[in-house]
Amino acid sequence: MKILMVDDHPLFLDGLALLFAQEFPEAELLVAHSLAGALSVLTTDSTINWVLLDLGLPDSDGLHALRRVRETSPEVACAVMSADERPATILSAIDLGAAGFVPKTTRRGELLRALRLMMSCGVYLPASVLAMQLGETPPGVPMGTESLESLGLSPRQGDVLRLLIEGKPNKAICRDLGLSESTVKTHLAAIFRKLGANSRTQAVVAAARLGLRLQPSGSGG
Fold first, then answer.
1. Core-most of 75, 117, 133, 142, by most CB within 10 Å?
2. Integer-rounded Cα radius of gyration of the chain
3. What is the band of 139 on the pLDDT scale with cuts at 50, 70, 90?
């Protein structure tokens, strides 16, 4: 896995790089210190799988950086690491397609858990957002479950949910899975219903609450 870390604080980047070297030695790390640098890397390297993005960059204002990264490389999953922990900022980031949000105040043990979860196709959100009542937890499903079956989601619906968490629009989901737009919309309606969600953002929050891990799977209907 190739990961682009975007942050203008060298000490923070050094600490994160050390954590990756110790816990994820298979990961290849690239670094950018500005939004312009990140966009340059993304436009010249098509093999990047994942971006870890700070919102406080010297040449960007907050969520603008996330919007530009998503516009430049919509196929690349982008998680936010930021000192701005306000629920409104976190939900706006998810709404713009972020595949997770990790506050910079997160302690090492929890940061490691967050990285492991996101690298296994799960979504990490801080407790302040998970505690918000954006939707109803499906009845009979305990918090922290990792089973699609317990939610009544099919493997193909799991594929659609995984791509939704990565911030993919419907057209990209259709292309990636070889499905028609009507089929994707049907799967999304079922996912929203089973997660008690009314929107993509609510579905991502529900998936984070439930601790779902959505590994890529093979083809199917």
1. 117
2. 17
3. very low
